[in-house]
Amino acid sequence: MAETGLVRFPGSLDPGAQEFIPRNPNQLTLFGPPPPQPLPPPPHQVFYPYPPISEVVPYAQYAAPPAYASAAPTVCVPIPPSSAAATRAVLLSSVPSDVSEGTVRREVEGFGEVRWVQMERVCEGIVTVHFYDLRHAERALREFREQNMQQQQTRLRNNYASYPFIPNTPPPLPPNNLSSQLLPVTPGRGLIAGQPVWAQFVIPALKAVPDGHNQGTIVIFNLDSAVTTSTLKDTFQAFGPVKELRETPSKKHQRFIEFFDVRDAAKALKEMNGKEINGKPVVIEFSRPGGHSRKYLNAVGNTTPTLVSPTNIIAPLHSNNALVSYPPSTSRETGRKILKTAQ
């Protein structure tokens, strides 16, 4: 085997020599951001002493404007429900929003004495007029609607006349047979501030007018069952015209009397309450709103009018006084059918 051990290379290196350290070694240059510049010295602060209080000129004392504090939020009065039966409350829609209560009263008092005018929703073009007499409310509604229908018919004629390509222009409409049987419409009546409006009956709310519990109907209690209807009607007609006298089949001692005018009902209650009829003292009260509302709601169940605008509706009056509202006519064919029906 070969001998193992240290391998010596030929050369002149001295293993015992000292370590060599260069005097000028090569330095590695590192590149980086420049050092931050020193901050400039702060400027010289000038001190201004406050002047004496006697030399201070005060600011002008301006009056602060009054702060606006909004009032309590106004509760929006709901629109009363429609009624197919005649009531003393007539709701007018499409009324000019800038009209005053005095103007409305002046326009509607031509039909009869006005009990109250609700102007809470006049900004929406809605006004409710309450009459004392039911006949006055019926007259007002009839004339308001007739004026409105005349405006609609005139607008339809002008609309057809503006289309020269239509070969057969409908002739002028003849007067309505029903309108000819009623009282003639006085020129200018049936308008609010010179504008046509739409009218319909609504069920009056109890709190809508003062003494709203008086809706023209009184109920008589503790009545002798032997008293006939004609006798009772003759007794109470002394206070005003009686519209209707109703009996309760299950309660022979109770009768309902409805007057045309609510003031006559109040007069009858004041004069006859506690008086004797056929030897028995009777108790008289105003009819409760429950039965009153049910009567109108039953009528509404048969024919329900809707709150519509006079600019998009034509609703003829019917012989049974039911007020029917028809959908608006948006096409030429629908308008032609309406004209033919009116003829």
From TrEMBL:
One of its GO terms (molecular function) is RNA binding. Pfam families: RRM_1. SUPFAM superfamilies: RNA-binding domain, RBD. One of its GO terms (biological process) is meiotic cell cycle. The keyword Cell division does not apply. It comes from the Eukaryota. Residues 88-163, 216-289 form the RRM domain. Keywords: Meiosis, Repeat, RNA-binding. SMART domains: RRM. This is RRM domain-containing protein. It comes from Prunus armeniaca (Apricot).
